[in-house]
Design goal:
- This protein has 4 domains: 139 residues, Rossmann fold, CATH 3.40.50; 76 residues, Dna Ligase, domain 1, CATH 3.30.1490.20; 135 residues, ATP-grasp fold, B domain (D-amino Acid Aminotransferase, Chain A, domain 1, 2-Layer Sandwich), CATH 3.30.470.20; 99 residues, Aldehyde Oxidoreductase, domain 3, CATH 3.90.1170.
- The strands form 5 sheets. Strands 1-16-18-14-11-10-9-12-13 form a 9-stranded antiparallel β-sheet, with helices on both faces. A 4-stranded antiparallel β-sheet has the order 5-8-6-7, sandwiched between helices. A 3-stranded parallel β-sheet has the order 3-2-4, with helices on both faces.
- Helix content is 31%, strand content 25%.
- It has 500 residues and is α+β, with helices and mostly antiparallel strands.
- Helix 1 crosses helix 11 and helix 8 packs across helix 14.
- The longest helix has 19 residues.
- The N and C termini lie far apart (53 Å).
- It has 14 helices and 21 strands.
Length: 500
């Protein structure tokens, strides 16, 4: 169910494809590079609204977007039975080359690498392929660095650069995890358990006791951390201190080592549905407070520590209280914000977005020079993530629409589900939300007041018919980590009572 108001930048938005393979259009563009043709931007595993947005921004600068599929993505899609013949052929034809075959592949496909201006990526599982292609073809200046894709190595690289970093250990067994918590964290302090790879807070669990941490450890040991074939579930569980402070996301664009902060977001994550990191809102910030300035400077230093010179990055940072200051939670180097409609908010509130900024860096040096070094807001904006709180089949969807008298800042409302759709479960992370609302206004107080109204009315947005369904599992472990942890704790409690 999609409702979009046509105003300002929303005039060029349309209903976006969600998931699946959709090839971006490839139009002939003016010549700019030494090969004599239009500059090419190779987009690894870029689908749906991401492909639309990138294609528009690339074409506006005289470039041509070319889809490339990583082996992991292509194999996963080809294993399904919902592809059209055209989509299946696209996956086979545009699969990335094997290692050491990149130059031969570029010669066969494009007459050489001379017209390739950049390689970009949107998905977690495509990052290794994107880095490999860029390095082998001699585009972008980042080279290959596994620490950009591994949360353990990432934090250690940041620490080695002299920056504040999270205390952590990689635990292959529960005894090692428990020893770290006892020896390195204050008594009674919570800890965070997470996979070494992953996005959108999937598999991230905050434990307030050793007993709870053990249950989370057991759950995470069976959770696949990425579809990247280089990552193994046997690589252990990452155990970290729980850094307190406001959580920010920093979207950057880089060109030849110059880093610009395109968007600064503050997350409103809450403890809901038994989970600790449920997205309630993603709020666009102006970067003017001293805390926000420190976060942006820190993020730029992190990019240097990870040897980033070109392309996009999305960094998540906790603003710990002084004297400690900002601490990196994770950096997604080579890809954009995980919320597709971040570009919509950027266009409305700033007049530009991170997709366009990276295309400026790749294709238009003059436009890059005009891009502000830090966010320049002309309106206040936030995305409200719709939190599902029940289990059941969707009977009706009752979202407010633009023009609602009680919500003057509402410009877009979208639900992921329609009546009669699959059985849904409570939201525990970004991927399991029920949709979103976009709030935009020149008046900050109006956006804040509307946000309060939305939170009050949110329980009425989805009517569900109670209906249980078998929870998906991998390796016998439920993917819904909070529910699995609760089940383990309840089983332990029952065993204790029976033994007593």
């Amino acid at each position: 169910m999609l409702a979009i108001v046509s105003l300002l930048a929303f005039e060029r938005l349309d209903s976006r494809a969600r998931g699946g393979v959709r090839q971006a259009s490839m139009c002939a563009m003016p010549s700019r590079l030494r090969g004599g043709g239009a500059p090419l931007v190779l987009a690894v595993d870029t689908v749906g609204s991401y492909a639309d947005e990138l294609n528009n921004e690339c074409a506006a600068r005289g470039g041509r977007l070319v889809q490339v599929w990583s082996t992991e993505f292509a194999d996963g899609e080809l294993a399904g039975d919902e592809l059209t013949d055209e989509e299946r052929a696209d996956l086979l034809q545009n699969r990335a080359p094997e290692p050491s075959c990149e130059l031969e592949w570029a010669q066969r496909r494009f007459g050489g690498a001379g017209n390739i201006a950049a390689v970009v990526c949107v998905s977690d599982h495509g990052l290794a392929t994107s880095e490999r292609l860029a390095s082998a073809l001699g585009v972008n200046g980042n080279g290959v660095l596994p620490a950009r894709r591994d949360k353990l190595a990432m934090a250690e690289a940041v620490r080695a650069a002299g920056l504040e970093s999270v205390r952590q250990c990689l635990a292959l067994d529960w005894e090692s995890a428990a020893a770290f918590v006892r020896q390195h964290l204050p008594p009674g302090a919570p800890c965070v358990l997470k996979p070494r790879r992953g996005v959108a807070s999937v598999g991230v669990y905050k434990a307030s006791s050793l007993h709870e941490a053990r249950a989370a450890f057991i759950a995470l040991r069976g959770l696949p951390v990425s579809s990247d074939s280089a990552v193994s579930v046997r690589e252990g569980v990452l155990v970290q201190e729980c850094v307190e402070g406001r959580e920010y996301a920093v979207d950057t664009a880089s060109r030849r080592g110059e880093h610009k902060v395109v968007h600064l977001w503050r997350y409103d994550k809450r403890e809901l549905n038994g989970a600790h990191f449920v997205y309630q809102a993603t709020i666009l910030c102006d970067g003017l407070s001293s805390e926000e300035e420190r976060v942006m400077r820190y993020a730029q230093h992190v990019l240097d520590a990870l040897r980033v010179r070109d392309g996009p990055a999305h960094l998540e940072v906790r603003a710990a209280a002084p004297p400690r200051g900002p601490v990196l939670i994770e950096a997604n180097v080579g890809r954009w914000h995980g919320v597709p409609y971040s570009a919509s908010l950027g266009n409305l509130a700033q007049g530009y977005n991170a997709f366009g900024a990276v295309m400026d860096a790749c294709l238009d040096a003059d436009a890059w020079g005009r891009l502000p070094a830090t966010p320049a807001l002309r309106a206040h904006a936030r995305m409200v993530h719709l939190v599902l709180s029940g289990v059941g089949r969707v009977l009706s969807v009752n979202l407010p629409q633009p023009g609602d008298a009680d919500l003057p800042s509402l410009v877009e409302a979208e639900a992921k589900y329609e009546p009669g759709d699959m059985v849904v479960r409570p939201s525990t992370d970004l991927k399991s939300d029920g949709g979103h609302l976009l709030l935009v206004s020149c008046d900050a107080a109006t956006v804040e007041a509307d946000y309060a109204v939305v939170l009050e009315r949110q329980p009425t947005f989805f009517e569900l018919k109670p209906e249980e369904t078998e929870r998906s599992s991998i390796g016998g472990v439920a993917c819904d980590i909070p529910s699995y942890v609760r089940a383990l704790l309840a089983a332990d409690s029952d065993s204790s009572k029976a033994g007593g």
